[in-house]
Amino acid sequence: MTDNRATGRRATDGGTGAGAEGRNTGRDTAVGPRSGARPGGSSPAGREPAGDIVAAVVRQWQAVRPDIDTGPMEIIGRVNRCAALLQQAEDAPLRRVGLTRPEFDVLGTLRRADHELTPGEIARETFSSGAAVTKRLKQLSERGLVERRGDTRDRRVAHVRLTEAGRDLVDGVLPEQLSYEASALSGLDEDGRHELAALLGELLIQLEGRLGTARG
Question: HTH marR-type domain: from which residue to which, for each copy (predicted)?
Fold first, then answer.
């Protein structure tokens, strides 16, 4: 899990200008990369245009600006909207234990690494700024979930590890978190999940290579 929170109108409408209409149709969440309208109203061979909010937004843009290619919107808009809707659901278990998603990202990073990490390493793993990680570590330390120790050779370096309470919290909430994710994907068959995972993996590799320097 990474520290990329989808917030505000931009995340809710998928960055397509859906506005209030997008916010009121959360139940229509067809996965975009496998179906959707095409510029000019055409659709991939053998597939009907998707009926999600992004498809409606694309049709509106095509009506007022038929000269532009809305293809990128059909992918990026759906990825953004899916991320916003999924995060709303996935955050529910975290809220119940008093964690924000960025805080859980820090705890999860330490848990899966299963050894001490420096704040800089945590920042890289969670795609966050050093200042943001420092703030989160302070909050988690005050709750007794992580602890820091100084480096014996370099006093400027700190090493962070989970406390027993932090480990128990991650291990307790993770199954519920994964259950939410499995439920969200239940509308896709196994082949569909594999296909989507592979396509998203290819996209992520490309984006990390070109856009991977931004930190939040």
Answer: 50-205
Contacts of 172 (CB under 8 A, 6+ apart): 97
Work out the number of other CB atoms within 10 angstroms of the CB of residue 19: 12
Q: What is the pLDDT confidence band of residue 11, given thresholds at 50, 70 and 90?
A: very low
Locus of tokens 């896709």 = 188
Q: Label residue 93 by pLDDT band (50, 70, 90).
A: confident
d(CA 139, CA 10): 28
Q: CATH classification of 101-174, choosing from 1.10.10.10, 1.20.1260.10, 3.30.470.20, 3.30.70.660?
A: 1.10.10.10
Of residues 98 and 14, the one with the higher pLDDT is 98
Alpha carbons 123 and 78: distance in angstroms, whole number:
28
Beta strands in 49-198 (DSSP E): 146-150, 158-162
- From-to residues of CATH 1.10.10.10 in the chain: 101-174
